[in-house]
Amino acid sequence: MASSSVTSARGFYSSWTKRENKKFEEALAFYDQDTPDRFEKVARAVGGGKTAEEARRLYELLERDVKKIEAGQVQIPLYKNTGYNGR
Questions:
Q1: Phi and psi (nearest 5°) for 70?
Q2: Which partner from 39, 51, 56, 70 sits 20 to 30 angstroms from 31, CA to CA?
Q3: Which residue range is the domain that position 59 belongs to?
Q4: Start and end of every Myb-like domain (predicted)?
């Protein structure tokens, strides 16, 4: 069951474009947790036919991922050095 939920979460994430994700982040910053009908407003700001339920679902998935990272349950990937030398 866990693997199917991971697969469905991955598919859900991929249904959001980079532009929609950026608008989503901006809308979350604008409409804080005390905003009435927050996810309806976020979905409207994102556009692209996203629903309040889709906005809420993405928020919940991201929140879950952050909690896993903070709990040390996710291995942080090793990135190649991009050549930045601090100057």
A1: -65, -30
A2: 70
A3: 10-69
A4: 12-64
CA dihedral (61, 67, 73, 77) positive or negative? positive
For residue 49, tell me if it sits in a domain: yes
Residue 78, domain member (yes or no): no
Q: Read off the pLDDT of residues 2-59 as tens digits, 9 standing for 90 and up.
A: 445 555 677 887 889 999 999 999 999 999 999 999 999 999 999 999 999 999 999 9
Q: Which amino acid is at 6?
A: V
Nearest-angstrom CA–CA distance, 18 and 2:
26
CATH number at residue 47: 1.10.10.60
